[in-house]
Amino acid sequence: QVQLVESGGGLVQAGGSLRLSCAASGSIFSINTMGWYRQAPGNQRELVAVITSGGSTNYADSVKGRFTISRDNAKNTVHLQMNSLKPEDTAVYYCNAFLRTANPGPWRSYWGQGTQVTVSS
Questions:
Q1: Read out DSSP for 75-120?
Q2: For 76-109, how does the pLDDT look when each residue is reduced to its tens digit (9 = 90+)?
Q3: What gap in Å lies between CA 119 and CA 110, rounded to an integer?
Q4: Which string of DSSP letters, residue by residue, matches 29-66?
Q5: Straight-line distance from the first to the last Cα atom of the chain, in angstroms, rounded to the nearest whole number
Q6: Which residues face 108 on adjacent strands?
Q7: Percent of the chain scored above 90 by pLDDT?
Q8: Cβ-count burial of 29 within 10 angstroms (0-12 exposed, 13-18 middle, 19+ buried)?
């Protein structure tokens, strides 16, 4: 069993900051990418940021320069520092990990339960 548990969401005023964290636990052999996605009401889930085990990152254009993703491979955790938040950043944020539980074994995508981020104007 693999679990991804997010924390750090909440309500913040525009221009403020929040830090999201996600910890993966359970029967994990290795993790490839970890990342954050978000889904606003009426919208599809979209990529926010991802980071590989080697530290390479990719960001959505809408968050570049404001959000920073980081990762601790030893602890199987990923963080998202969100600065200069805007009302359009309001969404449920989901943690994702692409991992395998055994070697050899299939790579699979796992999701957290989501954490609400609300930015007031």
A1: TTEEEEEE-S--GGG-EEEEEEEEEESSSS---EEEE---EEEEEE
A2: 999 999 999 999 999 999 999 999 999 999 999 9
A3: 27
A4: SEEEEEEEEEE-TTS--EEEEEE-TT--EEE-GGGTTT
A5: 40
A6: 99
A7: 100
A8: exposed
